[in-house]
Write a structure and sequence with these properties.
- With 210 residues, the protein is an all-alpha fold.
- The chain has eleven helices and no strands.
- The longest helix is centred in the middle third of the chain and has 19 residues.
- The two termini are 17 Å apart.
Length: 210
């Protein structure tokens, strides 16, 4: 099977199976999503969704979070991974939003990655989910699944290399959804340790089918 054929089958399947795929993080505005994505690094969305309601009640805006202390925020996020650094980054991020962006989450990649605790993946999530840009955020699920099913070659050994390969082969208008297709497939079917190959809808064209 050629690369073009594999991508075509991947797109056809998921357009039918997950036409409305989106993030599983709970949020009501871009600021809340930014906080949630920052908290989700090396942590499950389920855990993040458990802590954010109280966090957002206490700090509903960048302004309220910007005047909080790290300890104030830590009280609400202590059950996520790396809570100390994440609490510190959240406060610093909110302060910079107030100082440079009038409390608004910027729609510019460089401005996003300049925020404390925001890397390429988080910036791409924000641009994709909030601003519907053709950005492919590569997390562990996207990295694993895209290799397993054969969307990217073995030489793509970094998240950036995977990102570039996927963006090159998926139509721009589908990239925001394709990001979630890969995440959700990796989360619930193509799991890291015990992939559910017998229940996989794309097994016929998976490079490593069992």
């Amino acid at each position: 099977m050629t690369k073009k054929e594999r991508y075509a089958q991947f797109i056809t399947y998921f357009q039918q199976a997950m036409p409305e795929a989106n993030t599983e993080l709970h949020y009501k505005n871009p600021f809340q999503l930014l906080c949630a994505v920052m908290l989700s690094a090396q942590c499950t969305d389920k855990r993040v969704n458990m802590v954010t309601p109280a966090l957002f009640d206490a700090f509903p805006t960048p302004q309220t979070m910007s005047v909080a202390t790290k300890e104030d925020v830590l009280h609400y996020v202590k059950s996520v991974s790396y809570p100390n650094s994440k609490a510190e980054h959240l406060v610093a991020m909110a302060k910079l939003l107030m100082e440079r962006h009038n409390g608004e989450v910027p729609d510019d990649f460089d401005a996003l990655v300049a925020l404390p605790g925001v890397g390429r993946k988080t910036a791409n999530v924000m641009l994709s989910v909030v601003f519907d840009e053709a950005r492919m955020a590569v997390d562990t699920h996207v990295f694993r699944v895209s290799h397993r099913i054969g969307l990217v070659p073995d030489r793509c050994t970094t998240p950036l290399a995977v990102e570039k390969e996927l963006v090159k082969n998926i139509p721009d208008e589908l990239i925001p959804r394709a990001h979630h297709w890969l995440i959700l497939h990796g989360r619930y079917v193509c799991k890291s340790q015990r992939p559910l190959c017998d229940k996989c809808g794309i097994r016929d064209f998976c490079r490593k089918k069992k």
